[in-house]
Fold this sequence. Notes:
Elements: H1 2-27, H2 40-87, H3 93-118, H4 120-137, H5 140-169, H6 173-208, H7 211-246, H8 248-252
Amino acid sequence: xxxxxxxxxxxxxxxxxxKLKKLVHKAxxxxxxxxxxKDAECEDLKHKLxxxxxxxxTSAMTMKRTEANWKDIFNTEYKTMEELSQRxxxxxxxxxxxxxxxxxxxxxxxxxxARSAADVEYNQLVQKVNHTVAQIKALDPFYKQLEDFRVExxxxxxxxxxxxxxxxxxxxxxxxxxxxxxxxxxxKAKTDYETKLNxxxxxxxxxxxxxxxxxxxxxxxxxxxxxxxxxxxxxHSQGIYKYATSHERDVETLTLHNITI
Length: 261
């Protein structure tokens, strides 16, 4: 039982020491000999996907702000017309039209609120945009894993290069055994890194290839939102527009009396 305990402690200590060596390697001066550069395609796609994600996120935020702006418009129109109809003193067409528009604004508010639940196509488009952003964000832990594998590969590659040089200067069975052990670790580190790199780049390529439909979904959702809101305005405001245009000429020729004291 004591031996097992010491063995477990030894393994934990070895793992901790290995992590420490990796941290020291990351923080230490860069050695050109045996250095493993970051993969060019992976870095290029990472940069492109960051821009792609930022653009989609901005689009989603714009749609939220646009919905809020339309909501403010309907609320303002209702409050303005309701207040005017209540404060206007005479029972004439001005008050009647103001009251009619206040009621129309209430209907527009209701239809606007119902749109979110009823407009399946719009919501599906928004979900596609948000899903793509989430998928790009989900690559972050894979990037971290890939960098850990790259550092591991680089660390053993540089160590093996140093041992190879030392072996030429000092031939011994112990040195040969040390070089052999590190060669095995280097091969495993290389395989692990290349496997993870292929996995990450594969996911990046797949997401980057979705840019056209994702952008199309973002633009289509925004235009649908604007068109739908304008349809609501047009549907419920025809009577008011007719009243305003019919009196447009009257307003142009209107003369207000000046009161002088």
